[in-house]
Amino acid sequence: MLKIVLVVLLAFLVQYVFKTLLMFDVQKRIYNHRPGQCRKIEGPVHGSEDITIVDEKYVAFITSGLVYLNDDPSRATWKGQIFLYDLTKRTYKAESIPILNLEDEEGFHPHGISHWIKKDGTIRLFIVVHSKIFKHSIVILDFDETKRQLNHVRTVRNEKFVRPNDIVATGDDSFLVSNDGGAQTVLGNAVEMFTGFWKGGLVYYDGKTSQYLLENTVANGIILSRDRKTLFVSHINQETIGVFAWDQKNISMKKISEIETLTGCDNFYIDKQDNLWSGCHPILKDAVGHLGDAGDQSLFAPSQVLRFKFSKDLKSAEMVEVFSDDGKFTSASAIAVGFDDGKQLLIGTVFRDLTHCDIDVPLDF
């Protein structure tokens, strides 16, 4: 009997070690390639973690200055900012936009971002924000195009925003927000990662109340399709993308498929041809090390850009690797945006700068 118990325990141990090695991408290598000439954008230097494109104005809003799982607030010496990048010009310069009347200017360190166009044409931004002591909120801002400034509308705090990462606006005051875990410290996060007892998920906020849509999982990047009928969720720890039918009227979702990526996809963008783009972390162990000390410029992590073309039934996808880098040029890619009918590419990073590439190669075969 003892031998049987020992064999079973050994089997579980071997399985656990094997799954952990797979999750951290041990023994994977990255080979550098670019789709065309790539340049650094002047402006963001402390990250370009997420990007939202306003098609009506052909501009991009970019979050910068993330603080994440920060055990020592004194080390977060950088400022949180929102940058504006004009996609119609090739100046390769992003403009920092002033933000008026924030409740806590020193505690404004943006993470995920989304936007909504109000009936009067105003661009409203929804931003996941962490403070230096890693407290969380959703900050809502309206963009004044004439004065080129952002005006604070509202700051939302809720007990279900346990560790918010990404956000999708669904109305003037409503949104979906992902939680990528529950732990608030580096040590606690390590325990979650190694045990698999995740405390993240997906939350819907209707402007007054919140409700869980997914629990006890990891939800990283999230986005709705352009017809707003399909929801994509990055399960970065499992290296998969969950695909769900989304019902806005009834605030419900039904799983369609789960796409295995064999890489840690972060945030998403959907282009006008309904292709899904993602900035990914191909070697998670390197990404974890880089994210553990944002201020250490000697640390870097590989980057990867994937474009997904889904089948009509959304149960499979053709994946094309558009960009790959060992981290020395573009470190820890978090978002990829293909624009100009697939001829140009923006790559945002967690803690570093912003990359703008030409796409001079065919992506459809």
How is this fold's topology laid out?
Elements: H1 2-23, E1 38-41, E2 51-54, E3 59-64, E4 81-86, E5 95-96, E6 99-100, E7 109-117, E8 123-130, E9 136-144, E10 149-156, E11 164-169, E12 175-179, H2 186-195, E13 200-205, E14 210-217, E15 222-224, E16 230-235, E17 240-247, E18 252-260, E19 264-270, E20 276-281, H3 284-291, E21 303-310, E22 317-325, E23 333-339, E24 344-349, E25 354-358
Parallel strand pairs: 6-10
Antiparallel strand pairs: 1-25, 2-3, 3-4, 4-5, 7-8, 8-9, 9-10, 11-12, 12-13, 13-14, 15-16, 16-17, 17-18, 19-20, 20-21, 21-22, 23-24, 24-25
Short description:
The protein contains three helices and 25 strands. With about 375 residues, it is mainly beta. The mean pLDDT is about 90.
Number of helices: 3
The best one-word shape is globular
- The assigned CATH architecture is 6 Propeller
| Biggest beta-sheet profile | 5 strands, mixed
CATH domain fold name: Neuraminidase
Alpha carbon gyration radius? 20 Å
Ends distance:
58 Å
Strand order of the largest sheet: 6-10-9-8-7
Q: Uncertain regions: pLDDT < 50 for 5+ in a row?
A: none
Share in helix = 10-25%
Beta content comes to 35-45%
Note down, in words, how this protein is organized.
This protein is mainly β and 365 residues long. It has one domain (2-358): TolB, C-terminal domain (Neuraminidase, 6 Propeller). β2 (51-54) and β3 (59-64) form a beta hairpin. It contains three helices and 25 strands. The relative contact order is 0.15. Strands 6-10-9-8-7 form a five-stranded mixed beta sheet, with no helix packed on it. The protein has a four-stranded antiparallel beta sheet with strand order 1-25-24-23, with no helix packed on it. It has helices at 2-23, 186-195, 284-291; strands at 38-41, 51-54, 59-64, 81-86, 95-96, 99-100, 109-117, 123-130, 136-144, 149-156, 164-169, 175-179, 200-205, 210-217, 222-224, 230-235, 240-247, 252-260, 264-270, 276-281, 303-310, 317-325, 333-339, 344-349, 354-358. Ca(2+) binds at residues 49-50, 113, 165-166, 220, 266-267.
